[in-house]
Amino acid sequence: MEFSRRSPMRAQVIKVISVFMVVAFLSQRGAESRKANFQGSMFEYTAISCRAHSASLTDFNGVGDGKTSNTKAFQAAIDNLSQHASDGGALLYVPPGKWLTGSFQLTSHFTLYLHQDAVLLASQDMNEWPVLKPLPSYGRGRDAAGGRYASLIFGTNLTDVIVTGANGTIDGQGSMWWQKFHGGKLKYTRPYLIELMFSDNIQISNLTLLNSPSWNIHPVYSSNIVVQGITIIAPVRSPNTDGINPDSCTNIRIEDCYIVSGDDCVAVKSGWDEYGIQFGWPTKQLVIRRLTCISPYSAVIALGSEMSGGIEDVRAEDIVAFNTESAVRIKTAVGRGGYVKDVYVKRLTLHTMKWVFLMNGNYKAHADGHYDPNALPEVKGINYRDVVAENVSMAARLEGISGDPFTGICISNVTINVAAKSKKVQWMCNDVAGITSGVSPPPCGSLPDQGPEKIGACDFPADSLAIDRVNFKKCSYTITNA
């Protein structure tokens, strides 16, 4: 499908199409999130692995009253079920109720399943949040120089891990953490809702995540990851509540997600300055599709700013955004090193943006003063095509680095309808090079128009990645105490 470059009553058509797409998307999400088919005491769900054994949290004295701590119950249940790792794996069922809990650790060959009326409530007792060392590719915490609080749902060195449900809810109750952050009262970095480290074969699906203390989903140093059918909601002014942040990961699929957040909806990362360069784990082979985003102060998709291990082969398509600062943003700086290359984006429908295209080569938040000023990032092979946007303040702000320009930029078949109070100059380009075709309003001189015959010039790979060939199975679970 190609987007038309010109059509009558363009603004009205875009608005109608955008609203229709969101309604259709939410309807689909409702259907997807209820793939678990409840029939009496048995339900079905889809997963990368089914389990031979199961238990309910209530079997381990869990209490779903919203007041009783279930941290020990969760950990006891998971530790007990870990004995089945080599015998078909196990599922822990979280029934209807409000389950207050601090951080707990998952195990391999394991499924955590939340009933549609189950709510995990993150504990407000900071004693229920263990402190971990900083990530080796960061060298320090992001909120403070020291360590970091373990995520609510955490795991490391695992394989075959599933966190799913029938659109059950995980509520991070983040306001306490946001207040401490704004007040400068944090000794350690805030926890995330879900973090899996050094792990392989991961599924996170069909859940609603609310009010995370910081990032929502953070796979790091991991591979073969599917994030699917997730709804993420946080106040748009909440600090650093990024939606999904693949970090030094390989072979990732993010699809059919709805995100409202105070930061980037998807932020692709791979380590910070000299620590990320030394660690040297890139994020690569990433698919993002059918994403709906609202984030007035950040991007739909951000590449960086912590990208010192490298980012490559990112494929994003069928993106809808409303009232979001920018569509795709590249963030880097002198001292980052690393690279962002082979990025492919197509079919964006955007409404009310500050910028459509944004690249910053001067994003100067450094881990410490020991970064290498000669470590220059490489940004090349950035492809955007088939974009329709309305009510935009400025089409693009593209700022490379003097002596280290961003190259190989390709933008084609783009129609941007500027806002009534838009910038007089629609394109700002410094230290960038590339080509365009069929772009309105006309781009800057460093991105010369190649004519209508080149409208299909910007690449999008025809092959599929291995993560797209992952097969889901139909699994079932019987509730013995229905």
Automatic annotation (TrEMBL):
Keywords: Glycosidase, Hydrolase, Signal. InterPro entries: GH28_Enzymes, Glyco_hydro_28, RHGA/B-epi-like_pectate_lyase. Pfam families: Glyco_hydro_28, Pect-lyase_RHGA_epim. Residues 1-33 form the signal peptide. One of its GO terms (biological process) is carbohydrate metabolic process. Belongs to the glycosyl hydrolase 28 family. This is Rhamnogalacturonase A/B/Epimerase-like pectate lyase domain-containing protein. It comes from the Eukaryota. GO terms for molecular function: polygalacturonase activity. It comes from Carya illinoinensis. Residues 57-101 form the Rhamnogalacturonase A/B/Epimerase-like pectate lyase domain. The keyword Signal applies. The keyword Signal applies.
